[in-house]
Amino acid sequence: MRARDVGDSQRAVRRVSSARIGSVTTVSGGAVIACLAASIGINGCRVGPDYVRPRAELPESWRDAKSPVASSADENARWWREFEDPVLASLVEKALVQNLSLRQTGLRVIEARALRGIAAGEFFPQTQTAFGNASSNRKSKNSPQGLLDRSYDEYSVGLQAAWELDFWGRFRRGIESADASLDATVADYDTALVLLAADTASNYVRIRSIQEQLKFTRANVKSQQDTVELTRIRFNAGAVSELDVSTAQATLSNTQALIPELEDSLRQTKLGLCVLLGRVPSELENELGDERPVPTAPVEIALGIPGDLLRRRPDVRRAERMAAALSAQIGIAAADFYPSISITGSTGFHTSTFESPGSSPGARNILDANSFEGFVGLGISWPILNYSRVQNGVRAADARFQEAAVAYQDAVLQAAADVEAGLSSFLRSREQATFLAESVTAAQRSADLSLIQYRAGAADFLRVNQAQVDLVDRENRLVIAHASIALGAIATYRALGGGWQTREGTEFVPQETIYEMRARTDWGDILSPEYERGADLLFPRTHSSGQRDAAPEPSPRARDQEWKEQHDHPK
């Protein structure tokens, strides 16, 4: 053993008499006795740190918000209805029901529920076995046993069990970790809901934007075709040179080239929307119906305070729950510092029959009182020479927790940045669209006037051509700006975590899938919306990120105060 390993082992042995229970408590001789007495209870001693949510930095207000609007977490639950476009609302709500990737994420929640049940079962006797045996034996005559009866039959039947008592909270920490992991999978599902709603709405906005660009482009093609015809007439009359015809044709061909590009982009976007809806393209055309303008974004978006992101954003909740799961893993690793105490036992009946006269009748009297046998024992296992490995296992677990804590802090910062970015895009695009609308009006007037002057011979064709090129560009930019307003609003709603609340009161998988799974396997109450309330009477769920059993929603003032208490600490 290396000197460093010896030092680690000595320090670990000293921890037996001064062990940290929870986060700050030390164990003395009397406390050990009390801890042992409570070891098989639900709230006995637990080594390792008790989880505390990591601190995360958040701004006090949004930079682009003149006056933050206090809102509940449910106010933006169905934000897509704020666009007042029935087709958009219908598509989003159908995607939330039909999307296949979302169903996969929901099934991971069901899997996590089952794994949580396995963790809870570890608290009880870990080995419970019924056994039976029947054998026919013949010993060698040259063996010591060969001097007696060499042939005999042997029969046994009984039960045996082994129970490692949870003195140090290893298994209860495992339940804590499984609880937090289950909450993380629920948050994953909620994140998928938020992204699905936003992606569906964004694709719809892009479809309407491309359709509008196609409409303007085709109108410009028609106008430019008229211009080409005009230049040819004037060229044939000797009024202009062939340069005007060539320039007009080049501009027309360039504008016509935009149409296939836009049509391909439209097709690709529709295919992406089909995947989100779980539909084939032919069905989507019926859903979209006739061409409609780009949806108009709401004038204002209820932002709430930055502290709301800690409960609104599912990805933030997931990061926090993963930190909680890894915090419990420290306690599981630290339990190896202490002796493992187990109760083992077996009971049953055993008999043998020999060839010699007068021997017992064998299997027929296996249940006689004389055939009964049993064993019960107390075992202690303490790896006192392995503390270097145990210590480093605890260190590794602590490092993983710290990594998760930093990841949570990073997720909070990223969430705040997402809101600021979405809000900036929303507001700046709205300003841009105002100027572009004026620019398009002026460009249209410029194109009309230049063409009138060209017919009259008061202007050359270069001015006409430039005016028409500018008109095509500015009309497309205006459509893109209108779409950017809607996309900026969608990005803001997504950053605020709006949309996951729509699953309240429903299961994570469709009812037909539940029927299919129940037909194969006994799922008990795992496939039930009431799972959170009645999953385990002895070990009730320690956290519900799905808000089913959450406390009543606090008032905006109470939320503000809570946020200040959590974040107003010395730098």
Topology readout:
Blueprint (H helix, E strand, L loop, with lengths): L2 H15 L2 E2 L3 E2 L2 H9 L48 H13 L1 H22 L5 E12 L12 E14 L5 H67 L5 H36 L3 H8 L20 H4 L1 H21 L5 E15 L17 E10 L5 H69 L5 H35 L15 H10 L10 H4 L21 H12 L4
Antiparallel strand pairs: 1-2, 3-4, 4-5, 5-6
Helix pairs in contact: 3-5, 4-5, 5-6, 5-9, 5-11, 6-11, 9-10, 10-11
Quick gist of this model?
By secondary structure, this protein is α+β, with helices and mostly antiparallel strands.
Description:
This protein is α+β, with helices and mostly antiparallel strands and 571 residues long. The protein folds into two domains: 3-58 and 69-123 and 166-295 and 304-339 and 382-544, Up-down Bundle (Outer membrane efflux proteins (OEP)), CATH 1.20.1600.10; 127-165 and 340-381, Outer membrane efflux proteins (OEP) (Single Sheet). Helix content is 57%, strand content 10%. The chain contains 14 helices and six strands. The chain has helices at residues 3-17, 29-37, 86-98, 100-121, 170-236, 242-277, 281-288, 309-312, 314-334, 387-455, 461-495, 511-520, 531-534, 556-567, and strands at 20-21, 25-26, 127-138, 151-164, 340-354, 372-381. The protein has a four-stranded antiparallel β-sheet, with no helix packed on it. It has a two-stranded antiparallel sheet with strand order 1-2. Strand 1 and strand 2 (25-26) form a beta hairpin. Helix 5 runs antiparallel to helix 6 (242-277) and helix 10 packs antiparallel against helix 11 (461-495). The radius of gyration is 37 Å and the shape is elongated. The protein starts with a helix and ends with a helix. The model is unreliable at 1-39 and 544-557 (pLDDT under 50).
